[in-house]
């Protein structure tokens, strides 16, 4: 397959100013008539042919300025439509295609989900609807007429504002016309036709315009859409207040569908969502689900400015909209909830997914320079590391200049398809700073490692920190240059009393910009040996190695003013212990006891003051985190044993306290998903987990009781999750009651599939195979597949990485089955193999064989072909 390169970008030879679409929906023979008002691009080549993109299209007719073209005048295939002699002045091209939405299992283009019609066009799905210049720098005004059988699709939605609707006389059909006045790229096109329930409200924007907001869901589930609608309203208000961004159409519609390849899609004025990120009720959704819904509703709404009004020139610039929009949704959630708690959650995800990717054969820059399949670049690197870059920029230039730069960027680039350079130029222009070195964050892949050593000079009362940095080689990038790394830092005294230390290399915001391979900074006026608190708030996406003994790190847990680093200190100590235990270290009893004691002291002083934060402190790094930390010759069984043992020992050492907290945190009264209540539940459930690790039979009793008395899904699922760690009859019985109770609730069954797939015991693979026969499972539905198969491959370290290779062979067979239906889904599953080189030899050999068995198959999709070959490289 051809490689697409950033350096080969050139402007389109033609432009499309306006597109009129007439879509007559039919289950298997949908007719699309596209009328394109086009002209040559003054910036294009003067005598280039017109080549429109297609994908599995069936052309019925094509005419130019009203004249039907004969076979000699064009060249059509399912993949393209070429007109060698296109006019040199404005012209109108009319194209009729026929498509089959029912046969569309790729869930790209126009497809059906639960009987409804919907679309997904990003990145290159519009070409599955009609021939087009399907690239993000072609901005057009769209008018869409949708027609359907009234009984089949009473609701017809399009981008922009509704213009007219009515019956098609003499038939059972009806139609609706939508007009979107804002020129947009084709990837933001959407339409929906179906039978849907609606909740809505009116929103008044900051300049006083009225907008009709609506969320459409499966009829009968309207009461589960209220939280999403509320999150939308809060997002709109927040973007006005924090970024000065106002909404720009008369309506904003969100539609939930049950078959969807990712989380959601920001189509102009018509967001389409995976129903998992819309539907919520206390009985069916967890606190985490509520938080995800809030974040994703916000994310897609924020795209209206960062993505839609200012879009991407080409797909290499994907981080321009995604990294920025993730940053914006993170800030929103931080403002709506607890900032430090949210920051910790962000960093946990970043490390678990992006650091993992950066350390794998799939590592790539935030702005890649080449791709074979763009769908494979909607990654943690583009999204999460992309957001970290925006955050670092803000840390370096400060809040006020950041806001001024954002305003300039939005004003200057509004209505254009922009680049990362345009984004950075706005900040250079408002600050006068040279951001050339900073821009390396977009180009250079891999996670920088920063090593720091402290030196205290008692006589001089100074404290010096020596910094070095290096970034390991990654595919295509053997050598690296120094990065501009903002280090937010401070010094902490052993008893927590304030220090009057000063350092002229640290700015007023407490930030040192570390931008050389090595550098040293010196604090003066330091009366006693301090503990350095580095990368406060995780000020840069780097791996820190800090040469400090555990007891000094634990000073930070107790006394740091930065919550993130309090949590980080506990994690670092836990990680050291887990990694040492997993790789055979003996005699760690004293260290483990000291750590348990520090946690006990922390529980006494802090747990009830901030339960959400305490829950994070009490949760040990995951098995996958430990594997990543060890990095080579990984034995997942040893890690599992080490973590189980640590949980048991911490649980035993603190069981009185855990009990006390478990009782104290019991809540009566009705469920509320707010962050504070959720925090109490998360701490209570973290306590339950440790209690069960310490005393199996007591844990089982508590968990079963909690399961039976739970008033909400968060507590019910948490108790079931604890039970999955305790093999026996109680677990099996509770699992089967849960499965029975929710057999008609697909999104709840997903949780049930996921929990079982993650059971770290022999027999789980057989359980997963059995569950694939469950009536609630379907290989065609991405949510089901990700819950059952994805959880097994990504969350079950010991069973996926079985020493006999059966876990790998199983995943390989599912990837091949899924690939025939839905390549994007298959390629995502396949990324579970990206850790294979870290494993010890036996596992590594089995993994390589499984990967080879995929690579050797003929007719792989481009998606799977690309991932498998890069993973093996
Ligand atoms: N922009 C979409 C992702 C599209 C993925 C296409 N393979 C959702 C989002 O990031 O907001
Ligand atoms: Zn996005």
Concise account of the structure shown:
This protein has 873 residues and is an alpha+beta fold. Helices cover 41% and strands 20% of the residues.
What this model shows, in words?
The structure is a single chain. This protein is of the alpha+beta class and 873 residues long. It is globular and about 90 Å long. The chain folds into 5 domains: 4-195, Immunoglobulin-like, CATH 2.60.40.1730; 311-443, Neutral Protease Domain 2 (Neutral Protease, domain 2, Orthogonal Bundle); 449-540, Aminopeptidase N, middle-beta domain (Immunoglobulin-like, Sandwich); 548-694, Zincin-like fold, CATH 1.25.50.10; 748-873, Peptidase M1, alanyl aminopeptidase, C-terminal domain (Zincin-like fold). The protein is built from 27 helices and 32 strands. The strands form 10 sheets. Strands 6-5-9-3-2-12-15-14 form an 8-stranded mixed sheet, with no helix packed on it. It has a 5-stranded mixed sheet with strand order 17-18-19-21-20, covered by helices on one side. α16 (675-694) packs antiparallel against α17 (696-709). α1 (226-243) links the parallel β18 and β19. The two termini are 16 Å apart. The structure holds (3S)-3,7-diaminoheptanoic acid and zinc ion. The site of (3S)-3,7-diaminoheptanoic acid has 12 residues, from β20 and α2. It holds the Pfam family Peptidase_M1_N.
């Amino acid at each position: 397959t051809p490689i697409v390169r950033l350096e080969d970008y050139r402007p389109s030879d033609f432009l499309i100013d306006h597109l009129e679409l007439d879509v007559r929906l039919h289950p298997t023979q949908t007719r699309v008539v596209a009328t394109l008002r086009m002209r040559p691009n003054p910036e294009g080549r003067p005598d280039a042919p017109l080549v429109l993109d297609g994908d599995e299209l069936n052309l019925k007719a094509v005419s130019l300025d009203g004249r039907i073209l004969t076979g000699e005048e064009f060249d059509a295939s399912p993949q393209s439509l070429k007109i060698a002699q296109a006019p040199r002045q404005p012209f109108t091209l009319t194209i009729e295609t026929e498509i089959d939405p029912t046969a569309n299992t790729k869930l790209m283009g126009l497809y059906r989900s639960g009987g409804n019609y919907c679309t997904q066009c990003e990145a290159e799905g519009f070409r599955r609807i009609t021939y087009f210049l399907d690239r993000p720098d072609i901005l057009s005004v769209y008018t869409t007429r949708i027609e359907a059988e009234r009984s089949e699709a009473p609701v017809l939605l399009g981008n922009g504002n509704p213009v007219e609707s009515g019956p098609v006389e003499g038939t059972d059909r009806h139609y609706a016309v939508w007009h979107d006045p804002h020129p947009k790229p084709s990837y933001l096109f959407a339409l929906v036709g179906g039978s849907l329930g609606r909740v809505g409200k009116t929103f008044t924007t900051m300049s006083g315009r009225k907008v009709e907001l609506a969320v459409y869901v499966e009829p009968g589930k309207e009461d589960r859409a209220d939280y999403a609608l509320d999150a939308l309203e809060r997002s709109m208000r927040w973007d006005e207040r924090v970024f000065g961004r106002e909404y720009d159409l008369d309506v904003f519609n969100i539609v939930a569908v049950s078959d969807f390849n990712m989380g959601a899609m920001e189509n102009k004025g018509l967001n389409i969502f995976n129903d998992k990120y819309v539907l919520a009720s206390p009985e069916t959704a967890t606190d985490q689900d509520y938080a995800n819904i809030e974040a994703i509703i916000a994310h897609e709404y924020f795209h209206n400015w960062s993505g839609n009004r200012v879009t991407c020139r080409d797909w290499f610039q994907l981080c321009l909209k995604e990294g920025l929009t993730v940053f914006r949704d993170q800030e929103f959630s931080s403002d709506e909830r607890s900032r430090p708690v949210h920051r910790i959650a962000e960093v946990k995800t970043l490390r678990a997914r992006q650091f993992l990717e950066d350390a794998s054969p799939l590592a790539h820059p935030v702005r890649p320079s080449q791709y074979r399949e763009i769908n494979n670049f909607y990654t943690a690197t583009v999204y999460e590391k992309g957001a970290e870059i925006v955050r670092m920029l803000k840390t370096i230039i400060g809040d006020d200049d950041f806001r001024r730069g954002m305003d300039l960027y939005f004003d200057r680039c509004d209505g254009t398809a922009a680049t990362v350079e345009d984004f950075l130029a706005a900040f250079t222009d408002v600050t006068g700073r040279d951001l050339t070195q900073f821009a390396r964050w977009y180009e250079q892949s891999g996670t920088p490692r920063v090593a720091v050593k402290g030196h205290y000079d008692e006589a001089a009362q100074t404290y010096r920190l020596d910094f070095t940095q290096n970034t390991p080689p990654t595919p295509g990038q053997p050598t690296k240059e120094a990065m501009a790394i903002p280090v937010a830092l401070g010094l902490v005294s052993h008893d927590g009393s304030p220090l009057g230390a000063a350092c002229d290399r640290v700015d007023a915001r407490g930030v040192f910009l570390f931008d050389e391979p090595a550098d040293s900074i010196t604090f003066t006026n330091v009366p006693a040996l301090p503990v350095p608190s580095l990368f406060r708030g995780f000020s840069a996406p780097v791996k820190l190695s800090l040469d400090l003994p555990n007891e000094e790190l634990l000073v930070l847990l107790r006394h740091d003013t930065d919550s993130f680093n309090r949590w980080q200190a506990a994690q670092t100590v836990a990680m050291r212990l887990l990694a040492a235990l997993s790789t055979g270290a003996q005699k760690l009893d004293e260290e483990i006891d000291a750590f348990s004691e520090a946690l006990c002291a922390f529980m006494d002083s802090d747990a009830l003051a901030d339960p959400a934060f305490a829950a994070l402190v009490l949760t040990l790094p995951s098995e996958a985190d430990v594997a990543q930390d060890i990095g080579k010759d990984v034995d997942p069984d040893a890690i599992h044993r080490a973590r189980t043992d640590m949980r048991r020992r911490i649980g035993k050492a603190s069981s009185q306290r855990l009990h006390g907290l478990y009782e104290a945190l019991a809540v009566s009264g009705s469920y509320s998903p707010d962050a504070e209540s959720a925090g109490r539940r998360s701490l209570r459930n973290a306590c339950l987990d440790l209690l069960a690790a310490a005393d199996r039979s007591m844990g089982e009793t508590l968990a079963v009781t909690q399961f039976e008395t739970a008033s909400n899904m968060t507590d019910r699922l948490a108790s079931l999750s604890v039970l999955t760690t305790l093999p026996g009859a109680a677990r099996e019985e509770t699992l089967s009651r849960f499965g029975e109770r929710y057999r008609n609730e697909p999104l709840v069954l997903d949780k049930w599939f996921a929990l079982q797939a993650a059971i770290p015991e022999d027999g789980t693979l057989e359980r997963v195979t059995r569950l694939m026969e469950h009536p609630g499972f379907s290989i065609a539905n991405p949510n089901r597949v990700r819950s059952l198969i994805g959880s097994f491959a990504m969350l079950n370290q010991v069973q996926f990485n079985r020493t006999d290779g059966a876990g790998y062979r199983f995943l390989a067979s599912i990837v091949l089955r899924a690939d025939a239906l839905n390549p994007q889904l298959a390629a995502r599953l396949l990324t579970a193999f990206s850790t294979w080189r870290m494993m010890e030899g036996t596992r590594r050999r089995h993994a390589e064989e499984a990967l080879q068995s995929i690579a050797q198959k003929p007719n792989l999709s481009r998606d799977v072909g690309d991932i498998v070959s890069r993973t093996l490289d």
